[in-house]
Amino acid sequence: MAEKILSSRAEATKSEMVPQQRPLMPVHIFNAAIKGDTDYLVRCLGLLEERGVRVTVRTSQSTPQQTEEEHETVQFVLGSATRFGDTLLHLLITKRHNELTLKVFTKDMSLLKARNRKQETALHDAAKVGNEEVIRDLIRLSPSVVKDALGKTNENDDTAFHVAANHNHKGVVSELMTLDPQAAYEENKQGFSPLYIAIVEDHTSSVKAMLQVDTTLACTQFSDGTFPVHVAARMGNADLVEHFLQEYPEYAKLLDSCGRNLFHMAAEQDISDVLTIKVFALTKDDISQINHMVKSMINARDYEGNTPLHIAAMKGRRLVMKAILDELKYDRAALVPNRKGKTAFGLSYDQVWNISEVDRAIMNNYVVDKGWYFTPEWFDDVMIPYENKLERTQVIGLGSVLITTVAFAAAFTVPGGVNADNGAPVLGKRFMFRAFIVANTLAFIQAYMSLFAVIYSTLTDPEDIELQYAYHKFLSAASCMVIAFGIGSYLMFVPVTLPIAIIVLVVSLLVGSPTVFPVLFMEQGLYKRIFAFTSGFIGLYVVTPIMLLILIFCLALL
């Protein structure tokens, strides 16, 4: 269906895709439209109650018969637009002047399909602001015209239905869904349908409104091979997953192109903990269909033989694993191997072993005592320390990146600015400026080394060619950055403080060298002893700051 839609759009004429060139809207008409001046627009445009429009004209004067000149003036105004291409109907709908909107619509229905500079129709604007009342009345007046306008797309290839779903306007979604249920299947250029957008954006009310009109939407397969319930699980939308399990149990059991169900999807995500626990809570009070269905799905295998527990183990999702095993009552028979011969426990063991060196003794003791099976002690004594280390690693890495970025920028955006004539720092001769140079360089070098150590700690599998390639590319890029920092600092500071400029350059070249640094500190194993000494030294919270201050100001005396 998506291919047919895309091919039909490709056949659209160029005149349809380019907004019509319209004369500039008169200022008095623009102001009247913004203010919603009904009396003025009725007099200027000869707007009458036509075709059964139930509106009230707030004027006692009858509208005289228009002359030919007045008729041409009215047509000119209706055909005019603002500098942004908005017609009179765009303005009235956006400002929610619904009475005037219906009058103008009955005067010229083609305005509903007119595009502005963003290729948006007035129907797009109605969907954007959630003006469901005017959409309902427009459909009542001429459903065919509204349906035709619904097929028009903006510059992002979105229809008004896409816009309404993205902004979570449930009322608009219901009206458009009732008018044309097929519009909910239409995909934009990213391959997203209105239903897909509503699920990803966590707009549960809009999703339920679509499903209420057309329940078959629940079994729609998206372009990535997933179904609505899979996307909801992947996004951690517990309420929507629960709705599928209760209202559409057959559709909740659908499998994607890899043979995975909703629990496989949930097990992959960081945000799935709450979803899994909440869904499993349903089975505590329900011993009928949902209970049986959930138990079979959490032990189902995909085409690679992985159960949701396997997926959670590979991703290190402790709470998800624990929730699944609590549901299975730690049944050892359920811990089947996948097609590669790996059990969920084996995958979890490998994951923690590769990341957490300090806990390997604990892991070995656990295997000796408990065997190669999950128990509550695995999650409390092994997984929690592993999770804490992983979280600390992420925080340290993020902080190191931030310091490196700030220090690099500070080296060339110096305090006080630079001299416009020769580019030398204005405050370069001052002692505190030289102290700033030393402190900034130390911050940059140490943050770089911290980031390097974090990246190196992830290189656990020598057989992973892609990771090895990425690691060496990172090493090369980081080395070039440090060398660039040293050369740039030298050029910036050599006119004002030659000794410090030389020190910064030499240190940057040594630390940033793509051969010296890894050979001396990484591959020969010396880095472990050096970093162990450094971490112990940093543990002296009083001595370290004092030593750093002495170093900074002593170097600044040069």
UniProtKB/TrEMBL annotation:
Domain of life, per lineage: Eukaryota
InterPro entries named in the record: Ankyrin_rpt (IPR002110), Ankyrin_rpt-contain_sf (IPR036770), PGG_dom (IPR026961)
Membrane-traversing stretches: 395-414, 435-459, 471-493, 500-521, 533-557
Record-annotated PGG domain positions: 391-491
Keyword Membrane annotated: yes
Keywords noted in UniProt: ANK repeat, Membrane, Repeat, Transmembrane, Transmembrane helix
Main location per the UniProt record: membrane
Cross-referenced Pfam families: Ank_2, PGG
Annotated protein name in UniProt: Ankyrin repeat protein family-like protein
